[in-house]
Design a protein that fits this description.
The chain is of the alpha+beta class and 196 residues long. The chain has 9 helices and 5 strands. The radius of gyration is 21 Å and the shape is elongated.
């Protein structure tokens, strides 16, 4: 079955639905259609609100099934997802550098404490960051460390380390998705600030 045929099954099996579904499939690549937010999905020409609801439900069912089929591994999509995985380092009195290793579906497959430093710094080498990535066949890594001072503003050392690790990741084919600096009350994502 083509994408249009499958879409017609979801939105309705009438002749009109088949025509509409093929038109939508031609206009919207499937990978884009299934990621549209609800508001945009309702604005797709030819899709009624009920059909948009049926499509959104089918996509959500498929996502849940795939995620559970992969062992229910948590997905890391936003910095807030990262903070749920490493809440303990916010309270630490020394700098802790932690890495989250992800598979190609941005699911967490391994978490490792790489370094414990002093009140104001930690020693991190690319070798320690990427050895677990290779061991666990990770396709991406997220870097996290805390600032015990309470100010998550990145230092020049933080930025230099991030760029060094990004370069090492490029050589190994392992993407550094983000570097998140946390403090007791606040956090900074270098990806969101444009530093990454």
């Amino acid at each position: 079955m083509s994408d249009g045929d499958l879409l017609a099954v979801v939105i309705g099996l009438s002749e009109t639905a088949l025509e509409t579904a093929h038109g939508i499939a031609e206009q919207y690549p499937l990978e884009r259609l299934v990621t549209l937010p609800w508001e945009e999905l309702c604005r797709v020409p030819g899709l009624s609100k009920e059909a948009a609801g049926a499509l959104a439900a089918a996509v959500e069912l498929a996502k849940r099934g795939l995620d559970r089929g992969l062992g229910g591994l948590p997905k890391i999509l936003h910095p807030s997802d990262v903070l749920k995985v490493v809440p303990e380092i916010r309270e630490e009195r020394k700098e802790h550098f932690v890495c989250l290793y992800l598979n190609a579906r941005t699911q967490l497959i391994h978490k490792a404490l790489i370094s414990v430093g002093t009140l104001s710094g930690s020693l991190v080498h690319p070798r320690e960051v990427f050895a677990p990535a290779l061991e666990h066949a990770a396709s991406a890594v997220i870097l996290i460390h805390n600032h015990p001072s309470g100010d998550p503003t990145p230092s020049n050392d933080d930025l230099n380390l991030t760029h060094r690790l990004v370069e090492a990741g490029l050589i190994l084919g392992i993407e550094v998705i983000d570097h998140i600096i946390v403090a007791k009350e606040r956090w900074v994502s270098l990806k969101q600030t444009g530093e990454l």
